[in-house]
Amino acid sequence: MDLFAFSIQMEKDAEALYRKMADNAPAPGVKKVLLLLAEDEVKHRKAIEHLQKKLHVPEQQGVALDIKTVFDEMKQDPAFTAVSEDVVEDYQKAVEIERRGIAFYKEKFAEATDPVSKQLFEALMKQETYHLKTCESLLEMVQKPEWWVENAEFNPRTSDEY
Fold first, then answer.
1. Where are the domains positioned within the chain?
2. Which PANTHER family does the record match to this protein (predicted)?
3. DSSP per residue, 114-142
4. According to the CATH classification, is domain 3-151 in 1.20.140.10?
């Protein structure tokens, strides 16, 4: 499988997982975060498809600030600490997918020879790193909801942060 086919499939797999997780989300805010991540994966796939076709790759705008807003809202919801732990396996899988994505795009960034590819892989690394932090926060949230409400920090300053 070539670089483009593999990258596109990786983004499709991540999108499908986030949509499945959203269908089983334990709270409306969690569902919203997962759907935002799924939409980000769609943007990543489209950017890779543009690069594959040697078309202009549009600027990537992440969803960090939108997710921060949802997390802030969830922390204010007193019913939030009743989140079920039966979704832990999916959240762990999401963390692993994002870690693999970061490693893959880091490798492809190092191998890239043209500036457009380098720029895209660098942007994807940053956004997948942000997705990783989001998934780790979601995992923490379902494993320790009371602690998460009191202690979790989720403070990007821009949508492209991380």
1. 3-151
2. HYPOTHETICAL MEMBRANE PROTEIN, CONSERVED, RUBRERYTHRIN SUBFAMILY
3. SHHHHHHHHHHHHHHHHHHHHHHHHHHHH
4. no
